[in-house]
Amino acid sequence: MNSFFRAVLMFLALCLMVGCARNPNVEIVGSYFPGWMVSLALGVVLTAVVHVLLRREGLLSSVGHPAIIHPALLVFFTALLWLCFFA
User: Fold this and answer.
1) What are the tens digits of pLDDT across the range 16-47?
2) CA geometry: angle at 20 spanning 38 and 28, to 5°?
């Protein structure tokens, strides 16, 4: 088993064990901190990465208007990260 495959397996195992730990979020006025803030920051980064990839492949004009696609991607990545790591 090479080291890359072992690292991927360890990462997946760690992701699955997140649900076993105590939830580190603190509810303040209906929002859970710092989970949403971390998810939002990572969502912005992932949206920027998708934007760069779409531009590099020349697909940016064919996926839709950026004013609709980018906020949708941001909400998608933020909610996905929240569900994967904090819910």
Assistant:
1) 776 666 666 667 666 777 778 889 999 999 99
2) 40
Which one, of 34, 37, 47, 38, lies nearest residue 75 by Cα? 47
Verify cis geometry, omega within 30 degrees of 0, for the bond prior to 66: no
Amino acid at residue number 84: C
Q: Residue 78 is encoded by which pair of tokens?
A: 């933020």
Q: Mean pLDDT for the chain? A: 84
φ/ψ of residue 61, rounded to 5: -80, -20
Q: What is the pTM of this model?
A: 0.63
- Strand 26-28 relative to strand 31-33, pairing: antiparallel
| Phi, psi values for residue 64, rounded to 5° | 135, 180
Give the separation between CA 18 and CA 50, rounded to whole angstroms: 26
Bridge partners, residue 32, by sequence = 27
Q: What was the pLDDT predicted at 25?
A: 67
